[in-house]
Specification:
about 210 residues; Rossmann fold; single chain
């Protein structure tokens, strides 16, 4: 069987296949890049009409990265997948507390999920940062509570938790608020790979080197 083996050719062909599914969405160049990366990561063109990008989300996220902002994630899978080398070049790092002992203890005391506890512990550190939630709706709900009740103001929220309990509702709440620019995917679809793809797409807009 003949098949494409060159990595660049595989990627280029993938983007060619995706292009017709987003051609009629009136996307900017940068939005096209993010949509394409999300769809590519999912292997699912049905994502196309579900992706929602706030008009200020890309610029806000890029500006935060350029000034050295950190990225806070809900789970280790998201932290691990983000291009930390590129982010470090701009002065930022990726942080996740879900596995920390203090997070576990706090979650047990409050009878909440560890991802939710981690966001509550981060608290004011989220100001001006990027929050990337790919797995836990409770983490996204908590970030939105911090925004609403404690005036915590991240630069951007990438909220794409996956699942059947709370995921769609948390993302609907994210899309309904108007204080924080966001990128999300409606409904039950999403996941850590989608959060990673979104963050890396933004990083790639700032630095497209492949070193």
């Amino acid at each position: 069987m003949n098949f494409i083996q060159n990595p660049a050719q595989i990627e280029n062909r993938s983007m060619e296949i995706i292009a017709p599914y987003i051609a009629d969405l009136n996307l900017t160049f940068e939005e096209t890049k993010i949509y394409s990366r999300i769809i590519h990561a999912a292997g699912d063109v049905e994502y196309a009409p579900l992706i929602k990008i706030h008009p200020n989300a890309i610029n806000s996220a890029k500006s935060a990265i350029l000034r050295g902002a950190n990225i806070f994630t809900d789970v280790e899978m998201v932290r691990t997948g983000i291009n930390k080398r590129t982010l470090k070049n701009f002065g930022g790092e990726v942080l996740c507390k879900v596995a920390d002992d203090d997070t576990k203890k706090f979650a047990t005391e409050k009878n909440i999920t560890r991802s939710m506890a981690a966001m509550r512990i981060f608290g004011e550190k989220l100001n001006g940062a990027i929050v990337a939630v790919g797995n836990a709706p409770t983490a996204l709900f908590e970030v939105l509570r911090l925004v609403r009740e404690e005036n915590i103001l991240p630069a951007a929220i990438i909220g794409v938790p996956v699942g059947f309990v709370g995921a769609a509702d948390s993302k609907a709440e994210l899309a309904a608020q108007n204080k924080i620019p966001f990128i999300t995917v409606s409904g039950t679809k999403g996941g850590s790979s989608i959060a990673v793809a979104t963050v890396n797409a933004i990083l790639y807009l700032l630095d497209n080197s492949r070193d």
